[in-house]
Amino acid sequence: MLKKISIVFVLIFMSCNFEAPVEFSEKALHENLESIEGVSSSFEEIINTYKGKKILVDVWASWCRDCIEGIPKVKKIQKEFPEVVFLFLSVDEKVDSWKRAVKRYAISGEHYNMSKGMKNGDLVEFLDLSWIPRYLVLDEKGKISLFNAIDASDQKIKEAFNI
């Protein structure tokens, strides 16, 4: 009996779809983010601003050592792919810390804050955010072409730009 249950469990497990999403959920798209200038916009409004261009989304925080160590790698990618929009989404709960870090590390690109942190919010939930930095690539139509990279030097990022 145990053997039969084990086989059924394995079959169910193997039939599950583990593919990365190619579209954001409605709830994630409606999440409000704050620009560095203090303007609130939905995530959908933000990404629609850049339709027709590829977007690298960098989810980071000022307190995250791995994120800060990844900034030089991101800057290298920016030089290599100047046509790509670099959208930085901070999960800093302290807005002043986020703004200081953007200036301190001279991070150029588009900046927004998810002030609910990395444990709360519909966008965070959609991303299943358990580690930062986190990189996503969106195609010219706003579809997700790379859902999960945790290192800016991941070759999959450049491959997604060249699709």
Short key terms for the protein model shown above:
163 residues; 7 helices; 7 strands; 39% helix
How would you describe the overall organization of this protein?
- The protein has 163 residues and is an alpha/beta fold.
- The protein has a single domain (20-161), classed as 3-Layer(aba) Sandwich (Glutaredoxin), CATH 3.40.30.
- It is built from seven helices and seven strands, in the order ααββαβαβαβαββα.
- A seven-stranded mixed β-sheet has the order 2-1-5-4-3-6-7.
- The longest helix is centred in the middle third of the chain and has 16 residues, at 65-80.
- The protein is globular.
- It starts with a helix and ends with a helix.
Blueprint (SSEs and pairs):
Blueprint lengths: L1 H14 L10 H4 L2 E4 L4 E3 H7 L5 E6 L4 H16 L4 E6 L4 H10 L5 E4 L8 H6 L6 E5 L5 E6 L5 H7 L2
Strand content: 15-25%
Which outline best applies? globular
> What is the chain-wise order of helices and strands?
HHEEHEHEHEHEEH
Number of helices: 7
The overall pLDDT average reads: 89
Uncertain spans, ≥5 residues at pLDDT below 50? 4-17
CATH class: Alpha Beta
Main pleated-sheet profile: 7 strands, mixed
* Strands in their spatial order, largest beta sheet: 2-1-5-4-3-6-7
What's the helical proportion of residues? 25-40%
What is the distance, rounded to the nearest whole angstrom, between the alpha carbons of the first and last residues?
Answer: 49 Å
Indicate the CATH topology: Glutaredoxin
CATH superfamily: Glutaredoxin
Rg over CA atoms: 18 Å
Integer count of domains? 1
CATH architecture classification: 3-Layer(aba) Sandwich
User: How many strands in all?
Assistant: 7
